[in-house]
Amino acid sequence: MFKLFLPDLSKRAIGLDLLRAAAILMVLFYHAWIFVAGFFPKAGLLFFLGYWGVELFFVLSGFLIGGILITKVLQAETFSLNMLVDFWKRRWIRTIPVYLIALLINFLSINYLVAYPTTFDFRYLFFLQNINLPHPGFFPEAWSLSVEEWFYISLPIGVLLAFIIPVKNKENRLLTVFMLLLCGFTYLRYTQFQGQFELSAWDKNIRKVVAFRLDALMYGVLAAWFLKTKNKLVLQFKNALLVIGMILVPLAYFIFYKKHFPFFNVVFFTSISSLGFALSLFYFANWKGPKNIKLVNSITFLSVISYSLYLIHYTFLFRILNNFIIASTLLNASVLLICYLLLSILLASLFHYYFEKPFLKIKEKMKA
Description:
368 residues; 13 helices
């Protein structure tokens, strides 16, 4: 089965595949847990699984996209409009067609399978549905896709500044631009601080709004810059940086959960989480992986189908199951949870093979 989905493993970074697989599993398990949440009063604490999964996706995206752009800039005399267009074409052929297919499937399933009438919102076609306002109720997981797509637009435009700012060294020009973007994006979130903190308002009005979340991917970009320009230094301390990162992530959540520091929760909680994940990238980007080939294949398989899995696991599958099946006992709910996990992976595999993979082939044929 794996052979249908797996690319050339020699071209994969197994450590990054592991992080991507972990990210999608955290999101999937968070939503799956809702089936049994009624039997566990403290289940709401598992919010951190979904939160960490999405934040890890953001940092990984910034790291990979940043690495591509940094390489192009360091190799080029100028960052031309053609380079910009080529970058966007490759990104958009990779992400947008399958997103539009999933958007249609989710819209039809909500209207005709779940029978929850929904008027089509054309803002979804251009990722405008949550650019500066709370995300609508339909296809709620799409909020993070909007953040990523707008980052793909804003970062390359920002990189153009690297060729006009008065800094001699090209590497330092890039770092200057990245820090300016990071500070600017963080400042946008600072403007939303009203002196208090309320979890549902923060989740709706800040966490899931594009304008206030673009900084999350910048931490991945900065990690890519350090790996490409200070390679020996960061690899020398990669273990220590991993430990620091893995301390920062739960520590930030611990402070956040206590709700004693509203300013930290609104402005810096997501920043510290992103920084923690970014610091771990130096270790995993150079991790050789396990020797067990079946385990390697499983990790790579989940990584490869992660985008498809994210697109179809909730609005389509979860809401259909949750609408038609009511689990009255813990045993029934547990069986439903397991079936949901397996069906999600199965449907994502089919979606990847028949819809996503053809566009990946087109992307690979395009000029790098």
